[in-house]
């Protein structure tokens, strides 16, 4: 079976390109598994400070590949239904791993982004989109539902009322509209998409990797718990950070008015589903 994506190290980032351009980079089980392996590679390489996901051709990701799954959905045989559920559970686990990855995950969104592709974007940390990119939840158009936590993540990103509008109507929205709603961080000309994203990665590369990992965890966890509990949790994390080598390096650099040089960090045995 041909590869569905490819990855390459560019400076301090692992760039992952979805490469099913004939299917608008729609996600099938093979792509889910290959993306999971790429995340393992990013975690195993302590010189990788960030992950960037983009798409080949004129699409970022059109969602789940209905050509792969449609026939099984129509078939009443329970074995076929089990295959569908297996795919959905593996896809959901992949999104959870991206959200929990203790390294920043960025997107460079180059085109159409629908349904599961939108859920993928909502799980990432910093989203950069070309001006020509477009976005649609799309599920209601076909009588489907977001079953991968996408409804919740979209509502967290754009607010519940905008998420309901997007999900109910299945309309397409521009990159500028999604930036105004909060899902997209930056909108740039298509010709500048790669260069701009690389500049963001460069900003992250000289920051404390332990600090960024903990900040990501704080934000993700803090939105799920009451504010007073979140405040106590943040204080506990801060106390732990005071004992980390990155804090000692940072405070020393601050006192001496020099730029800190944070060491690389590895995450042995990390699995996003643990």
Structure description:
- The chain has 274 residues and is an alpha/beta fold.
- It folds into two domains: 5-205, 2-enoyl-CoA Hydratase, Chain A, domain 1 (Alpha-Beta Complex), CATH 3.90.226.10; 209-256.
- 50% of the residues lie in helices and 15% in strands.
- It is built from eleven helices and ten strands.
- The protein has a six-stranded mixed β-sheet, with helices on both faces.
- The mean pLDDT is 85.
Describe the secondary structure blueprint for this structure.
Elements: E1 5-10, E2 13-18, H1 29-44, E3 50-55, E4 59-61, H2 66-74, H3 78-100, E5 105-109, E6 112-114, H4 116-123, E7 126-130, E8 134-136, H5 150-158, H6 160-169, E9 173-174, H7 175-181, E10 186-188, H8 193-205, H9 209-222, H10 227-241, H11 245-256
Parallel strand pairs: 2-3, 3-5, 4-6, 5-7, 6-8, 7-10
Antiparallel strand pairs: 1-2, 8-9
Helix pairs in contact: 1-3, 4-5, 5-6, 9-10
What proportion strand?
A: 15-25%
Please provide the count of β strands.
10
Poorly predicted ranges: none
How many helix segments?
Answer: 11
CATH architecture of the largest domain: Alpha-Beta Complex
State the shape.
globular
């Amino acid at each position: 079976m041909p590869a569905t994506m490819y990855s390459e190290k560019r400076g301090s980032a692992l760039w992952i390109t979805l490469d099913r351009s004939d299917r608008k980079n729609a996600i099938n089980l093979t792509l889910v598994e290959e993306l999971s392996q790429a995340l393992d590679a990013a975690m195993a390489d302590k010189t990788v400070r960030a992950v960037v996901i983009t798409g080949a051709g004129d699409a970022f990701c059109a969602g789940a590949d209905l050509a792969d799954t449609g026939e099984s959905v129509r078939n009443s045989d329970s074995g076929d239904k089990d295959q569908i559920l297996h795919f959905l559970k593996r896809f959901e686990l992949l999104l959870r791993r991206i959200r929990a990855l203790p390294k920043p995950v960025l997107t460079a969104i180059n085109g159409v982004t629908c349904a599961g592709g939108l859920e993928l974007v909502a799980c990432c940390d910093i989203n950069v989109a070309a001006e020509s990119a477009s976005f649609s939840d799309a599920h209601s158009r076909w009588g489907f539902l977001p079953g991968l936590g996408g409804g919740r993540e979209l509502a967290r990103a754009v607010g519940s009322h905008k998420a309901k509008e997007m999900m109910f109507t299945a309309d397409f929205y521009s990159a500028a509209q999604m930036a105004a709603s909060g899902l997209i961080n930056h909108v740039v000309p298509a010709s500048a998409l790669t260069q701009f994203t690389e500049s963001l990665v460069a900003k992250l590369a000289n920051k404390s990797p332990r600090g960024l990992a903990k900040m990501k965890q704080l934000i993700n966890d803090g939105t799920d718990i009451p504010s007073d509990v979140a405040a106590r949790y943040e204080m506990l994390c801060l106390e732990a950070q005071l004992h980390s080598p990155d804090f000692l390096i940072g405070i020393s650099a601050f006192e001496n008015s020099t730029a800190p040089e944070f060491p690389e960090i590895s995450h042995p045995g990390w699995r996003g589903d643990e």
